[in-house]
Amino acid sequence: MSKLFYHPTIKLLKILILLLLFLGGDFGSNNNNNNYYVEAFKVPFRVKDVLPVLPHQISWPVLNNLHSAVDLLPYFVGSVSPDNGTLQWKGACFYDNEARLDFALADSDHDPALGGGLLRLKTSAAHSWTCMDLYVFATPYRVTWDYYFSAREHTLKFDSWEEAAEMEYVKQHGVSVFLMPSGMLGTLLSLIDVLPLFSNTVWGQNANLAFLTKHMGATFEKRPQPWRTTINPDDVHSGDFLAVSKIRGRWGGFETLEKWVTGAFAGHTAVCLKDELGNLWVGESGHENEKGEEIIVVIPWEEWWELSLKDSSNPQIALLPLHPDVRAKFNSTAAWEYARSMSGKPYGYHNMIFSWIDTIADNYPPPLDAHLVISVMSMWTRVQPAYAANMWNEALNKRLGTEDLDLYGILGETERRGIAFDELLTVPEHDEWVYSDGQSTTCVAFILAMYKAAGVFGPVSSSIQVTEFTIRDAYMLKIFENNQTRLPSWCNNGNGQLPFCQILGEYQMELPEYNSVEPYANMNENCPSLPPVYDRPIQC
Asked: For this UniProt entry, which residues form the secretion signal (predicted)?
């Protein structure tokens, strides 16, 4: 043990921590025979409220056990409207809360015909004297926030509704109320947990590994050297799948969150192609060009491999060879035709989130839900309209059979048809849909669409929408080599531990349920994906 922990001041603080942990809980006893009851009492402060002011050596070990990045996500409390009375709930700081919404006259600076609103929120029964609650209030037309640290009635004024459609929306659906579950302090602490995910440092890498270990059960077993394999291109064939997992930097952080919501243990993919001269190429959707755009490319293996070795996100890469029977029916000519037809087109942002959302409630890791999704969509629509149109507006129009509606027009149309927005999100994507910039394919949809063109899916090909597949769905397909003795001699598969070839990376890659599901009609159109187990029903 460090000498630091023998210092008298530190010993005193340790005793204080233990005392606070004891007092921080609400405790009491109920003796029915004696009609005697000792109620839980409010303490001056709790350990979670005061830890940040204590020495680093004391506070951080405790903070790391109390908070996680998930604490950043708002919890949907409910919707409050003028017609639904009073909303009541238990907060993170204040245990008794209620809110109601009244319509009011608009301020003089706004259109009087629109009117405004006044949300009254009453807080009481705080668990300590120093805590506070942070709330986000949202409609599809605005997102705002406020925090409360005193027990009384608070007001949040909407000076004017943005437009008549917002006023009508609030009449019908109200204002959504979200609570930051860990309170103000927890939110700030969770930022400390999230921000390192995107840091291109050892600190950032460790944060990603810790997040995936905690929330997905990943193990990250160190591999023996060498961590890089020199492949023999003669042993690689058209259609062989490349699974990539980045664990640091901007893409490492993004992939970590993507893995968490989808259950995939890889965050990017590419595919091998052999030309008629035997040269090895790589097809990839999501390749960054010199302008910083994410596009679809077919580039020589040597170029792709060199870029991977230079990638500062520390990629872990596995080669998943196709099964010989699948390879025998792989139409390389058709695969090349498809790849060339897509080369230069943009990455498939249009349908990226829709491959993940299949169900109304069972694809959102708690506390994510459809209410939060629409609020995020609303925020992005206000901040970056073009980005929002690219990410979801066109795709939602496809699902409605409409054109050029923005998010608010889409909401109005769903209301008119009596369709719940969370149901609209679950409508399956169709491979034949053509967007304003062409067919839209993510990294994995590009590969599976190539497989589809090459005949990999056989008789069920016409009834499979590959744009509904996540990376996890792809590597679970039972189309890969299942005999380790047929793997190439240079294949570094962990002394027989892995059923595929890991060709780069310091950590052994895991692909749970790899090569286990036969293709079937309407595959992956209604599959849940809840962590940490990510149970997948048969034929979903």
From this structure: 1-28
Query: At residue 140, does pLDDT exceed 80?
Result: no
Q: CA 201, 205, 208 angle in degrees (round to 5)?
A: 140
Q: Quick one: three-class SS letters along 211-235?
A: HHHHHHCCCCCECCCCCECCCCHHH
- How far apart are the C-alpha atoms of 46 and 64, rounded to whole Å? 16
Asked if pLDDT for residue 36 goes beyond 60, the answer is no
Query: What CA–CA distance (Å, rounded) separates 526 from 534?
Result: 13
Q: Name the 3-class secondary structure at 263.
A: coil
Considering the chain, what percentage of its residues have pLDDT values greater than 90? 51
pLDDT, tens digit, for every residue of 301-339?
999 999 999 999 999 999 999 999 999 999 999 999 999
Distance CA 136, CA 122 (A): 15
Mean pLDDT on 180-199: 66
Compute, in degrees rounded to 10, the torsion defined by CA atoms 191, 194, 199, 202: 110
Q: Which long-range contacts (CB under 8 A, 24 or more apart) does 383-387 make?
A: none
Rounded Cα distance between 125 and 88, Å, is 13
3-state secondary structure of 528: coil
CB-CB contact of 513 with 266 (8 Å): no
CB burial of residue 285 (10 Å; 0-12, 13-18, 19+): buried
What proportion of the chain, given as a percentage, has pLDDT over 70? 81
Contacts of 14 (CB under 8 A, 6+ apart): 5, 58
Q: Quote the CA–CA distance of 62 and 185 in Å, as a whole number.
A: 14
* Residue 281 structure tokens: 């190429």
